[in-house]
Amino acid sequence: MELAILKQTGEDTGRKITLSEDIFALEPNDHAIYLDVKQYLANKRQGTHKSKERAEISGSTKKIKKQKGTGGARAGSIKSPVFRGGGRVFGPKPRDYSFKLNKKLKQVARKSALSYKAKENGLLVLEDPVFDAPRTKDYISLLTNLSLLGKKTLLVVAENNKNLYLSSRNLQKTKVRMVDELNTYELLDADSLVLCEGAVSKLETLLSK
Questions:
Q1: How do the pLDDT tens digits run along the chain, 209 residues long?
Q2: What is this structure's pTM?
Q3: Distance CA 46, CA 105 (A)
Q4: 20 to 30 A Cα–Cα from 76, which one of 23, 51, 127, 156?
């Protein structure tokens, strides 16, 4: 699979790059994607939800009325869940929602997500961008040149590029990630995936292990 390499100006460099078919053209595994995305979202949950049960609320434990002869049901405590202001029955408690997935399954999920992007023509390869200083308007110009302004964009770099990251930070629909930080959720969430030229070989090496 070959793709043209684009300049920062959006023009074709005249060069092409060959992408590995084992990563960008395999048959996607939807169940692996589902599990990886589920784990990503579960790991983001704080799990700090909490409601008070009858033993935890303040209130008298005095028997509020006699046992018999009232014509109503028995009532032993004002903190009973059946009364307004009483405790909650089986309310939520703090818990950890994270769970484990095998590395090979997560690798299959990322390959599947990349294959979907390639199949949907949502993949671009960009010559490694050079930003002399962090300027948001320069990043906006880059997106405009690539006809991606206003779209959800994920730009993947080979190594940390502080100027590029700071230039994109104030824009809502765009993210800059290093190859090591890629996850299936963000790959699928982006309308367009932009791979920097230097990131391609590093990505293929990482997913071939």
A1: 788 888 888 888 888 899 988 999 899 999 999 999 999 999 999 999 999 999 999 988 889 889 999 998 988 899 999 999 999 999 999 999 999 999 999 999 999 999 999 999 889 999 988 888 999 999 999 999 999 988 999 999 988 889 999 999 999 999 999 999 999 999 999 999 999 988 998 999 998 87
A2: 0.83
A3: 25
A4: 51
User: Both tokens of residue 27?
Assistant: 């048959």
Among candidate residues 25, 68, 21, 41, the one with its CA nearest the CA of residue 183 = 41
Q: For residues 191 and 153, is the Cβ–Cβ distance under 8 A?
A: yes
Domain at 2-46+98-207, CATH homologous superfamily: Ribosomal protein L4/L1 (3.40.1370.10)
- Domain parsing of the chain, residue ranges: 2-46+98-207, 51-91
